[in-house]
Specification:
Chain lengths: ~260, ~220
């Protein structure tokens, strides 16, 4: 299971929010320096999100994203405000390994499918969700400020067959809380798609990573091997130093 | 005609019209090497070393290299014994042909053809994977630990030959790096493989410095 070290951008700086609340923000300074620090500590993937662009669609931190991608000596996955073919082309052209579409996929899934087809394996679906009372997972858009009225299951079904590189699934209510990941929600998503699934939200400890690495779900009715997570995005736990990068990578490698 | 061995100029990272290749140049500069992205044959003729990057399809890269006017200077540099590093599709281009683009010739400097990665595996291989060393000590892999992890993005790879110095396991052994005299190649991306990748590039930079005139 890959470890992706998260860097969220707001106003040109690295930040971490709690449950996506723009009113509950902690600053972590220069994002390029943070990226270097994480890579020097052993991170093999960076996951860079433009929070301002996610909310408004205006790529105000695009230059910072491109700078991180150009300088990073590891692959960079990036999302937030990626809404058009031009956005995808600019990011991939600058060396970003994979772009994440969130709002774009929810509001125009056919466009998302086209972008995936145009860049096989280089486009990932960002599914950020809140639980409804009936247990279903409602996808949220625009920096999590808008519920979409669509469920994760509906969207995965709509895009089945598109050559997406991965599905990045974020439990909004867990994000930034260090309270542990939503294992049930993730198990549900694993059973709904054959795509690589990357978990995000709530990791607070090496034990959380071991639990994610050990998660196993029987394959969808079509059959195939047992499903497991392909990766996990970790933000606060790494930048706060609660878990060291090398310790986190070791915890992600739990065999099974 | 240039003298044999590395020239006095910076390491030339070939810019032959296939897109943004700055990451290789930046990684070399990060190591303190004099390196410059160039599309000028004269700079290749003077270079202390040459890096041939490549992304996308073999055929498109081979055609672009020819159209750019850099194919002949690249071959001449190889012939003069200048340290030469092919990366990803640039590594593939060092071979005579690829299944990906039948009928389009590569540089034919390394033996064997480039073939689609076989086995029941998802393609492209887009992941970190550890190298398995092959054969005697290799300059390219000098100083790396026993199982160095590097980052791959590819669907094709050269056949394994006597010049293969490392493979990775992806549905079976897949050629990951080769070395033949002054010609080195990596299927993985050393500029995206963190400290291990930088160490490979540092080994290349050291080769470029050997034989360079005192500055």
């Amino acid at each position: 299971m890959d470890l992706l070290a998260a860097i969220d951008l707001r106003g040109g700086a690295a930040v971490r929010l709690v449950q996506g609340d723009f009113g509950r923000e902690q600053g972590y300074g220069d994002p390029v320096a943070l990226a270097s620090r994480l890579v020097d500590a052993g991170a093999r993937w960076l996951h860079v999100v433009d929070l301002d662009a996610a909310r408004t669609g205006e790529p105000v931190n695009r230059a910072v994203v491109l700078d991180i991608a150009a300088r990073a000596t590891v692959p960079v996955q990036s999302g937030g405000g990626v809404r058009s073919a031009a956005d995808v082309d600019e990011l991939l052209g600058a060396g970003v390994a994979r772009v994440v579409l969130g709002t774009a996929a929810l509001e125009d899934p056919d466009l998302a499918g086209e972008l995936a087809t145009g860049h096989p394996d280089r486009v990932a679906l960002g599914l950020d969700y809140r639980r409804r009372d009936d247990g279903s997972l409602e996808a949220a858009a625009r920096g999590w400020t808008t519920g979409s009225g669509r469920t994760v299951a509906e969207l995965l079904d709509h895009l089945a067959g598109a050559p997406l590189g991965a599905v990045v699934v974020t439990a909004i209510e867990r994000d930034g809380t260090l309270a542990g990941p939503d294992l049930d929600g993730l198990a549900g998503v694993l059973g709904l798609t054959a795509l690589p699934v990357v978990a995000s939200g709530g990791v607070g400890s090496a034990d959380d990573l071991r639990a994610l690495a050990g998660l196993r779900v029987a394959a969808p009715p079509a059959g195939g091997p047992v499903r497991r997570l392909a990766g996990v995005v970790v933000g606060k736990a790494l930048v706060d130093g609660r878990v060291g990068v090398e310790e986190a990578i070791a915890a992600c490698a739990t065999p099974g | 005609m240039s003298a044999p061995g590395p020239g006095p100029g910076p390491i030339a990272v070939l810019d032959y019209g296939i897109g943004n290749l700055r990451s290789a140049e930046k990684a070399l500069q990060h190591l303190g090497a004099r390196a410059r992205l160039t599309s000028e044959p004269a700079e290749v003729d003077d270079a202390a070393g040459v890096v041939l990057p490549g992304v996308g399809a073999f055929g498109r890269c081979a055609e672009a290299l020819a159209t750019s006017g850099l194919r002949a200077p690249a071959l001449a540099a190889i012939g003069r014994g200048v340290p030469f590093l092919g990366v990803c599709v640039g590594f593939q281009l060092l071979h005579a042909s690829s299944e990906e683009s039948p009928g389009t010739p590569g540089l034919g400097v390394l033996d064997g053809a480039v073939r689609r990665v076989g086995g029941a595996v998802k393609l492209p291989q887009m992941q970190w994977n550890p190298l398995v060393r092959r054969g005697p000590d290799s300059g390219l892999l000098a100083g790396l630990g026993p199982s160095p992890w590097v980052y791959f993005v590819h669907s094709y790879a050269p056949e394994i030959t006597a010049d293969t110095v490392a493979t990775c396991d992806y549905g079976g052994p897949v050629a990951a790096a080769s070395e033949r005299g002054n010609v080195w190649g990596t299927q993985f991306h050393p500029e995206k493989s963190s400290a291990t990748g930088l160490a490979v590039l540092a080994n290349f930079v050291a080769r470029c410095a050997d034989g360079a005139p005192p500055s």
